[in-house]
Amino acid sequence: MSRNLKEMGFNSTILHGGKLQEQRQDSINGFREGRYDVLVATNVAGRGIDIPDVQAVVNYDVPNNIQDYTHRIGRTGRAGKRGYAVSLLTMEDTDIMYDLKQMLVATGSIVPQELEHAEAARVKPGQIKKDRRLDF
After folding, report:
1. Homologous superfamily of 54-136 in CATH?
2. Which of 34, 37, 93, 103 could serve as a FRET partner for 6 with CA atoms 20 to 30 Å apart?
3. Separation in Å, CA 77 to CA 5, 13, 93
4. SS3 call for 28
5. Domain spans of the chain, in order of start
6. Assigned CATH topology for domain 1-51
7. pLDDT tens-digit profile of 47-93?
8. Distance CA 114, CA 68 (A)
């Protein structure tokens, strides 16, 4: 993903558990200092990393639970600033759809039409048979 972003003109760096601590710290510092426009990260960046002024978080692979999702998107919109979270959902993400929809409604956020009408967003997780096709 980082390579593709670089080809599109973004100055990106990566952060994942396979990197040495020094390499991870260099990526974080470079993003924090503005040397990089984009930080592509695995779950290793989901908790405990404070980077001010993050404008957007894009979830390419959505976490399975709403707590991890909340921590991820919490990288943006801090201290009263406006931030955006974009999440790309697939049929593999049915476990989080109900809670995500509930969270969006509770916070007055926009609920995309596809999520609004997805069967998995209408019932709590575990109440849908996995072998049944969902209308998403």
Report:
1. P-loop containing nucleotide triphosphate hydrolases (3.40.50.300)
2. 93
3. 23, 21, 24
4. helix
5. 1-51, 54-136
6. Rossmann fold (3.40.50)
7. 667 777 888 889 899 988 898 888 888 777 667 778 888 999 998 99
8. 22
